[in-house]
Every structure is written in structure tokens, then in C-alpha cells.
Amino acid sequence: xIFNSIEFFVFLPVAFLLYWFIRxxxxxxxxxxxxxxxxxxxxxxxxxxxxIFSTLVDFTIGSLLKKEQVTQKRKLYLLIxxxxxxxxLGFFKYYNFFVDSFIDxxxxxxxELSVNSLNxxxxxxxxxxxxxxxxxxxxxxxxxxxxxxxxxxxSAFVCFFxxxxxxxxxxxxxxxxxxxxxxxxKYKQAVEGLKLILWGLFKKIVxxxxxxxxxxxVFINYDTYASSTLIMGAVFFAFQIxxxxxxxxxxxxxxxxxxxxxxxxxxxxPYFSKNVSEFWQRWHISLSTWFRDYVYIPLGGxxxxxxxxxxxxxxxxxxxxxxxxxxxxxxxxxxFHAVLFLPxxxxxxxxxxxxxxxxxSIVFNFAVIxxxxxxxxxxxxxxxxxxxxRMFFNFSYEYYLHPRGFxxxxxxxxxxxxxxxxxxxxxxxRNPFPIKNKVFRYITYILVIFSMLLFFDDGVDRSFIYFxx
Amino acid sequence: MFKFIKKxxxxxxxxxxxxxxxxxxxxxxxxxxNRYIDExxxxxxxxxxxGFSVTGNRRQNVGEFKINSFGFNSIYDSYKPSVDSxxxxxxxxxxxxxxxxxxxxxxxxxLEDKLSNYKVYEFGxxxxxxxxxxxxxxxxxxxxxxxxxVVIYIRFTDDxxxxxxxxxxRLKNINTxxxxxxxxxxxxxxxxDIGVVNGLTGGIINIINKVKxxxxxxxxxxxTEKTNNKKRxxxxxxxxxxxxxxxxxxxxxIDYSLCDKAFVDYLSDNDFKTIDFSExxxxxxxxxxxxYDQHWNSYGRDLLSSLISDYYxxx
Lengths: 469, 315
Hints:
The complex is a heterodimer.
Chain A: H1 6-21, H2 25-44, H3 48-67, H4 71-108, H5 126-141, H6 151-159, H7 161-164, H8 172-175, H9 187-220, H10 227-258, H11 276-282, H12 285-296, H13 306-324, H14 328-347, H15 358-377, H16 381-393, H17 408-424, H18 438-455
Chain B: H1 2-25, E1 35-37, E2 43-45, E3 50-55, E4 61-66, E5 86-92, H2 94-97, H3 107-114, E6 118-124, H4 130-139, H5 141-144, E7 149-154, H6 170-174, H7 177-183, H8 186-193, H9 196-212, H10 225-242, E8 250-254, H11 261-269, E9 273-276, H12 278-283, H13 298-314
Parallel strand pairs in B: 5-6, 5-7, 7-8, 8-9
Antiparallel strand pairs in B: 1-2, 3-4
Helix pairs in contact in B: 1-8, 3-13
């Protein structure tokens, strides 16, 4: 079930009403588990077994870690959890990548191997809930978190439907305790939730989905379009992926609020960042902080020689890229960001101190991020290379016609208005409609809904990009 | 909680009204003229209506239509053929009806510009097939016998699905009281046209299927394309038998690239006259159809009008 589907618009109010009828905390948690399994099983019920298994493994290991005091045994338990969780992720997400890369490597040296890759379906959200459950086990191992005795609460924590399939990747320390206490309906929280859902839907339907056909067209025909069109394609993809993923996060956070939960913020207007370092503090925050806490710091972080720090940063960015997908393009994307990040890290963001440079820094940083997106969006590194070569070294202009005959000016105006509005609201990502006057606020709601009607495109694949990760 | 639900209900209601006003103000919705079945059992548009046909979001394509006293979209208020003048009748479905274009630049008008001595009368109705078209010829024989030439547009893949004419239930389904009420809301019409409502109904069907666990099995379509083509040819034969046409007067405007070879051979063997536009469209360096639907754009209509006029000039 996806957030922008009619199934969800039936599911959400029914679940909301039933949920608040329940007075007992255990029953509330049980309801969340059932609703979440229904939500996930709607896509493919067979893969529910993975979630249930993962829940059982991490709950059991959490309990064992509490009882066990011998370090070696505790390490062993942690290792079992890591192997099982990453094993599933590795098999479903990366098996074919490794097999294909292995074959490619051998054929490079003149040896042809005949290893068959499998037709594996990637379970939706596996990268997200795997990391979430891992964070629980690691925190329990580190004794930063008391393991739960409440299996129902833990199950609800693992499968909580608003953030199950595409995050935010919640920390057990933040989300799990919210399942221990009974939720009470709060009017203000519910209204905040609805506002976030509305804004998330706007970003998804109006920004991401309406740009998708243009981006698809440009990235398919990259070898025929002029560089002006390729630049537009890269910029539009930047907005598409932002609208898509941050839209999803807003809906997830908003939906959670409707059920009385507070999730962490996942996006803080990343395209207003002045450099790549700041970008990563604003983009997919739940993932970048996960890597910081569970990879970068355990590797030693910045406590060591410069070489070690560089090594640690590189590792984090490469893994982060690889997390996004089983393709070398994502690894290159991660490496590209690492290369941009390192000088800023060592210069300690000196450029930020000069105020008048800020707008230029933002524009420059956005341009650089767009170059990175070309790797992210391309099907292969060679395609990305050709795309970038044509974009930078073969400059020409041509008038671009929308693949479905829409006026292109509509999209430029739309993005300009969107950017200005995002700039106005940039102080608080949790409140997309900070307009005090009731009438103006209502006019804004109407404009947002009306623009959904204007830009709704029945012909696009409405699923979220990050589902594939 | 009650306050929350009450406020949402009020919000939804007011928003619906405001959106309805906005859709009307910007005229985003498509205007669909009323249709009826006349005394000869011909499904037509109610005469003397005019308006604008709007396609896509944000008024992507707007075409003005004007329905004449005979019930067809045309610049002519009525069709009065006479022996003293030359007339061509253009019969067909939505492609000839031409709601995707301005009625002043229709295929008929473009043809008339090229054949200055002819008047072109258009008899287009969205959804018609060959059975409808031949039934029209028979029902209004008194008019068509005065018309000098008849061009019948058919699409092999769509217009030969039945071998005899009978009035369809199409209008009954359109004119249910519930749908009549819904048609008063321009917002709903617009939402339906851009696919929002399809998403809703599709989603609801999906939910019902899931709940009932009657997930529609993809039934293997046992009827192969070959059988379909055979059936279409049989239907054509049957229709022509029921509604014989004057082979000298009538010519089929047809895209051979969509046709089965046996059908093309049959037309040729039985001396049916045809104007095939497949090659012209294929060779054209510009797209002859609209971007967002399959109908002919202005350029496509230019090509077709040239083909038809050449046919009559050479005749």
C-alpha cells in the first residue's frame, strides 16, 4: 500500500478511528501491529515472514544480551543479529549485484563464467527496517538502551506502518519508549499531522510525479538531447527525488502524529545548504546519523590520524551509496560526495563565515549536488559519463518539448514558486504552513490542493523512488 | 476527537465548494454535449448545442464544437444536399466528430478548402463503429442519396467488433440519475477526466477484490489475434450484406498498417474503394497525432485532407 493510493486513503481513516476507540495500551499496540502487517502485506504478504523473523531474532537477542555479562558471548549474540539482518539484506538486495560483478571481473581477465543470477524480488523497505532493528540490538549491546520485555511493543516498533517501507529510520531509543505508554488523542498533534500529510502529498504529486515524465524522457534519450536539456534533466531530477522522498517522510511523520507518535525529522530543506557537509545534515537525516552513530564513530570517527579520518569518511560515504542500491552508480555517487565532503571537513566550513557568499554557495552547492544526481539516476556509470560529457563539453541549446505536450513554462513557474515557498518556511520543517492569519492559511491549503488537481498525472508510476532501496 | 472530525468534515465541504468554483472559473472541465437516440434509432448528439471540449490537465487542449440541427459537429447549421451542388459526406467516430479540434479547422473544413467545388458534411460521433455508420447511411438514405460522395472512416482494430446493428446501452449507462447528479459538478467531471476518479474506482475495485480474495486471475486469452481478425472480416462481410453500399460512391478511409492482410485482400478482391493513409503517416517527418491522445492533430488532418482531395481529383 502506498501513501498516495486510494487504498491508503481508505485504510488511514478507518485505522485512525478504530485506533482511537481502543483504550488499552496493549490493544493499541496490537492494533498497530495488525494494521502494519495489513499495510505491508497489501504489497506482498509473503515478505511479512521476513519482518516477523527479524522481529523475533532481535527481540530474543536483546533479551539474551540483557542476561549475558560475558563480553565474548555478548559479541557473539550481536554478531548473530548482524549476520541474520544483513544476510537477508545482502541476499535480497545484493546477491545479483555480486554475482554479476564477479562475472564481469572474470570476463575482464578473459575468463567467461556461467553463474546464473537469480530472479529475486527486493522486499519493499528491507533496507529501512533492517537498519532500524539493528540499531536496537547495537544500542542494547552497548548498554545504551534497556532491552524491552514487551514483545508486542517491540513488534509495533519494528513494523510501525508510517515509516516501515521508507523511513525515517527510527532509533529504538526514540520510538520504542513511545509504545510503552498509552497514547492520548491530542487535537494539536493531529492537526499538525494533517498539515504534514498535505504538504507531503503536494511534494509527491505536484513536484515529484509531474517532473517524472520529463526526467525519464531526458535520462532515456540522454544521447540525443542538447546539453541545455541535459542540465534541465539533472536539475529536475534533483527536485523530483527531493519531492518524492521528503514528501514520503512528511506523510510518514504526519501519519505518525495522527496516531500519537513523534518521529524524527528526515529532511531540513537540503537544497539551501551552503556545502556538501551541510547538505548531509539536512538530507535523509535518519540515514546519515545512523551511519555516523553505527559506522563512523565505531571506526574511530575523527579521533585519530588524518589518514584514519579520511578512511572513515570514505567508508561511510561508500557504504551509504551502496545502501541505496546494488549498482556501481550508487557507489560512485557516494564516492563523489565523499570527495566533495573531505575538503570542507578539513577546512572546517570556513566559507560559511563570509555572509555575502552564502547565496552563491547555495547555488554552487546545488549545482554540484545535481552532478552527483546524474550518477544516482543513470542506469550505468558509462551512461552517467556520457551524460556528463555531453552536459559539460558539448554545450548547445534547444527548445525542449514535454513528452506529453504540456507547456514547459508551467514547470519552471512551479519550481520557482516551490523554491520561494520552501525558503519562506525553511525555519521549521515540521510546520509547512506557518501562516498565522486563518484566511490566508486556508487560501494556501486551497492552492496546494488545487495545484494537485492541476498537476496530477494519471500516466506516471506513482510509487515512491525510495521503495526500491 | 469529535472536534477534530467535525472540523475535517467542514474543511472537506468548504474545500469542495471552493474547488468547484475554481474549476468553473478557469473552465478546466470538459463540456460534453447531451446525446440521444433519434426516431431512426441512430445515436446522435442533441442538436443545436455548442461549447468547448477540454482535454488534459490545465486545459492542455481546447476545441470548440458546434452541433448543428442534424446532431453533428459542423460549420453547417443543417445539411441540405441538392443535385445542383457537389457534396461529400465524411462518416466516422471521434476522429471525424473532431471534438479535439476547433470545428472550423476540422478535417471536413480542410478538405473543403482543397476541393473548392465540394461541400463537406461531417457525420462524426464518438464511439461509432462500422455498424453505426452503415445504419446511419440506411436510416438517412433520403439525404445520402443526394450526396455525391461518401467517405467512411474505419479502424480495423476497433470498428468491426460486431456484425449487426442494434442500439447499445451506452446512453442508458451514461444517463443514470446518479450520473446526472454527478455531471452537475464540474470538479467531479474534471477529476474524472484527468484520471483521479479512475484511480478511486480502480482502487475500490482492487480493495473489493482483495477483500473477497477473488484476485482476478489473468485468464489466458484463448482467442488469438488471428481469430479476432477472422471475426472482424466476417463482421465486415455480414454488415455489408445487411447494408449494401454503393461501391462507386463510398470509399473507406483506412489505416492499412492496422489491418489484417486477409481483410486488405478482401477489400481489393471485392472492388471496395479505399484511401489508405498508413504510408503517408509513416513517411511524415512530423507527428500526425496529438501528443496526449491518438486523434489527428492539425498536421495529420492536413495530410488526410490532401490524400482525400487527391483521390477525388484523380477520380
